[in-house]
Amino acid sequence: MLEPTHNNELPPIPGKRYFTIGEVSTLCAVKPHVLRYWEAEFPQLKPVKRRGNRRYYQRGDVELVRAIRGLLYEEGYTIGGARQRLTSEDGPNPAEVMSAVSDSLKDLEAAKSLLQLDD
Fold first, then answer.
1. Element (H, E) at 96
2. Average pLDDT, the chain
3. What is the rounded distance in angstroms from the CA atom of residue 104 to the CA atom of residue 119?
4. What's the CATH code of the domain at 51?
5. Which residues form the domain of 23?
6. Domain count, the chain
7. CA-to-CA distance for 89 and 82, rounded, in angstroms?
8. What is the structure's pLDDT at 66?
9. Where does the pLDDT of residue 95 fall: very low under 50, low under 70, confident under 90, or very high at 90 and above?
10. Cα–Cα distance, 3 to 6 (Å, whole number)
11. Torsion 20-21-24-29 (CA) sign
């Protein structure tokens, strides 16, 4: 298995639509039981389950597993910290929200001044 600091040495993700748990295990250098545990801990990780409860991961799932692996093994996050970090990345960025609000206020003030000129 790869050392935790060697996430950049993981094999490239093939151009397939679905991956089995064994394939994801190999692609992400994580054992299958760890992947099943992470499914319970990270609500974003939801592979498709088919007949016999077999898991099929899509490319986005594999990339998410690699991101989780990086947070836990390379950056030293706890499970809870990694979950919080992923959740905050899913939500809107506060700086972007404030910028959008500021731009909207400027647009409204400009529209207001145009309307006042017409009176």
1. helix 94-118
2. 85
3. 23
4. 1.10.1660.10
5. 7-91
6. 1
7. 11
8. 94
9. low
10. 6
11. negative
